[in-house]
Amino acid sequence: MDFPAGGVIGDRSYFVRETDHEEIVIGVDDDTGASIRIIYYSNHLPEYLGEDLNRFKKRIGYDGDFKKLEQNHQSLYYTALKSNISLDYAGYILHEKGMGGIEVVYEIDCRDEKEQVCEENQQRYEEKALEWMKSIQFVNEERK
């Protein structure tokens, strides 16, 4: 995974649940006011993709379909969400030959004076978020 330029991790930005998941929040110190929430699940399997995607959809408040990209034995399911305060780019990355799933929400602040900037740069922000999500790679081998 390429660490985002200007990325900052605070003292309380990392959480581990021993048998379940790891979570990290990265603040991006740039003109977007972006934050990135990453949750890694070590026990997710391709056979349970439907259930895992449905849980992710509930967490992000999304009821549509994801676009899908496949590369290097993993699949990225992603979408763009817009609210009155932010642009969110959500992705779920599944390790197709091993165990593991990663939820990513890349959120850009669009409040107040940033609203017009978000409108003007929406396509560029989406491309940037998608390229960053595509940089995430699993390092473990095939499951046994």
Please characterize this protein's 3D structure.
The protein has one domain (7-134). 23% of the residues lie in helices and 38% in strands. The chain has helices at 49-60, 114-134; strands spanning 7-8, 14-17, 21-28, 35-41, 67-71, 74-82, 86-95, 101-109. Strands 1, 2, 3, 4, 5, 6, 7 and 8 form an eight-stranded antiparallel β-sheet that branches. The relative contact order is 0.17.
Number of helical segments with 4 or more residues = 2
SS elements, strand count: 8
Main sheet specs: 8 strands, antiparallel
Topology pattern, helix = H, strand = E:
EEEEHEEEEH
Please outline what is shown here.
The protein has 144 residues and is of the alpha+beta class.
Features of the shown structure:
144 residues; alpha+beta; eight-stranded antiparallel sheet; 2 helices; 8 strands
Q: Layout of helices and strands, plus pairs?
A:
Layout: E1 7-8, E2 14-17, E3 21-28, E4 35-41, H1 49-60, E5 67-71, E6 74-82, E7 86-95, E8 101-109, H2 114-134
Antiparallel strand pairs: 1-3, 2-3, 3-4, 4-8, 5-6, 6-7, 7-8
